Amino acid sequence: MSVHRSPSSASPRNPSTAARPALVPTNSVTTPEGITVRARIDPTLTVNDVVKQLCVNLKLKTPPSDHALRDEADELVTNENMRKKIKAKVNLKLVNAPAKEAREIIEALITRDDKTLRLTLFSLQKYIREPEFARHFVERGGLDDLVEVIHAAHGNTLAYALIAMQNLMDLDYGWSNLDSSFTLKVVQILSSPQSLINVCRPATAILKKLVEADPTNAPIQGASSSTGSPQLPHGSVHRYGFSFVFEQMRKEETFLQTVVNRLGSADTAMVQHSMMLINSLLSHVGESYWDEFVAETERLHVRKAVARLMATQTVDDLTSCILDFQANIIRVTHRKKTTQIDSLSHETTLKYIWSNSKLEEDYDEESNIVKWRKLGFTSEDIEAEFRDVGVLGLDCLKSFVKREPDFPKLALEQLSRAEQRRCPIGRASNEVVELLSEHWAIFAPGYSTSTTFQPFFMDFERVHSLATQCFIRMWGESNAATDDFTRVAALVRSQVKVALRTENARAWHEVEHDFLECEYRSVRERQMREIEMEDDLLSKVPIRNLRAKIYKESYEFVREQRIHCLFQGAWFVNAYSHSSPIPKDTSRRPSKPWRFLRLDNSLKHLYFVDSPMKFPVRSGLDDLPERIEVAAITEIATGTCIPPPNVLRENSDLPQVIPSGPSPLSFSLLSAHDGSMSDLIAPDQSRWADWTDGLNMLRRDSGHVASKETAGFVQALTEIGLKIKLLDLSGEKVEIPSGLSAGPPPPNTDFFFSDL
């Protein structure tokens, strides 16, 4: 390697040296003293060898181990990226080595000089992302010093310290020693309404990271213990999780309330971080805390707060968070529907329903008690009556009783009728739960294909109350009898589809009008037209259950197909973020407008290469030198980018868009605190759907579906699969009952199961 000091413009030129062929310097290197030299660097050397030769040639007195190279953007030069920087003739700086920088920063954290502490923390939050620096920082005990600063600091100093901790926690090592007192401190920061927004943002991200650092997410090394719990590697950060964080949340009663209140903040980033924390808590809550935590979210009306965001939000960055929350609520609703009621555990709710009916218990001719049958159930076994709808059905019936001021009058009115003409209120309530579950596809947790907001789903019990009133009214207006229950249910199913159509664009008063003011005759006429177009067979309970099973299988099939597309990789256009300042010289074509991305087999990284033009990319990762960590992607924002100039016009396979507006085929990979890590435009709608939904489906909770194309595939596969399954039945003319009732148990154990 040769080093040349930058010549002065007034220096005379030596004719003898001009004729001699000289080495062409390739990079400018700025020394710690501010002197710039030109150096030709051998790309076959290691970074340590290059630094050593620079120190020798520049006659520096400090040892080479105290120095390192960085580019103008302060990115550390490593053996992996040095060749690329030399080739690009990047300007370099000779600076302190990560080990020396870590040592000096730790010393500054210990002394805590108010004049320099902020600057120290500002440098720390920048360097801590580098594995080389982080390793030295952690080995020297810097984590404990940073935690002490967080405990003592306030204002902007605290914000800088929290951001540094947040950046450290993006690494999968180095923070396994954080204890409960640190977690409690973060909880206390977030519990205070007076905490600054720039303090709350990193604090929220830290708590979210602790929730997600669950032992079940850890890479397993070696065999499990005898208790069946995973054996964590030494130093693993996956030792926290929901239970660890929730124990500290309990100590601050106002914590969750304050986080929910921040959903109404004018700061979009604060709303986004709060939504992400709530989603993370809902996704990771375990069996031990499920009932307590879900009940707390219901008490704080989190759904209503998110429904208000649905109505008012105009920022695309929040769309993904809201759809994630929507998918989490489907998970909660499915869990409630499949949780069986217990007469003892739910005694209070059952007593509330019965006492508000103002009815009295009686006895039938066989001296059996008549209680729940008066409310329209078929038996007195109340646990069996709610077997198909679980706790969800019980809660909905209680809500209906609470919302209906004339419920005692309604119950008494039905009893005054002939037994065959009574509307079975209890059965009707449960049937409406089934109809709404079918409408909103509540088939299983983690299988949400809605691509739009569903604000009415956020208030399931209110919709249930309206639909149940509609059921009772249809029963009366049609002069129905007991055998007409299925017919009335079909009428209500038809009305549910009408009332809840285009849910994201309608108001509550329109839904109420459709349920409460609809005429029986018009509903019946519309239903008859629908029957002409579809088979009544599809509305029967066994077919509903079959549809739910096929729906899950179809979702998994599409998920695998989307992720397979990510394995294959694709070319995209490097775009400009619509929300970021556009470069001044927008008339020039960028030097590398194309980016090829591919997901590795471990599902952990997206590898990519930027290029001035598209070229055949070999299989594997050899042609893709750069990478993005999938775990760092917190949002897949869509419709966020505008194309660079003179790129789309030259490629017929890319659609034309107005440069001033975002492309509908654009998407951004967003990080919690770094903003956008990649702004891309897909070549067509199919590629856009493959990647936006594929990346969402990579997540542990399967995320949500962003494109109507993917949602349509799932629905189409479900319908095709259902019809294929039914071909055998229709061909053999097998009669499918509307429901099955279990017979009486055998009188003794003197029996065996037949092999037939």
UniProtKB/TrEMBL annotation:
One of its GO terms (biological process) is actin filament organization. Coiled coil: none annotated. Residues 1-29 are annotated as: Disordered. Residues 1-22 have a biased composition (Low complexity). GO terms for cellular component: plasma membrane. PROSITE patterns: ELMO. InterPro entries: ARM-like, ARM-type_fold, ELMO_ARM, ELMO_dom, ELMO_domain-containing, PH-like_dom_sf, PH_domain. It holds the Pfam family ELMO_ARM. It comes from the Eukaryota. Residues 345-500 form the ELMO domain. Keywords: Apoptosis, Phagocytosis, SH3-binding. GO terms for molecular function: SH3 domain binding. Involved in cytoskeletal rearrangements required for phagocytosis of apoptotic cells and cell motility. Acts in association with DOCK1 and CRK. Was initially proposed to be required in complex with DOCK1 to activate Rac Rho small GTPases. May enhance the guanine nucleotide exchange factor (GEF) activity of DOCK1. This is ELMO domain-containing protein.
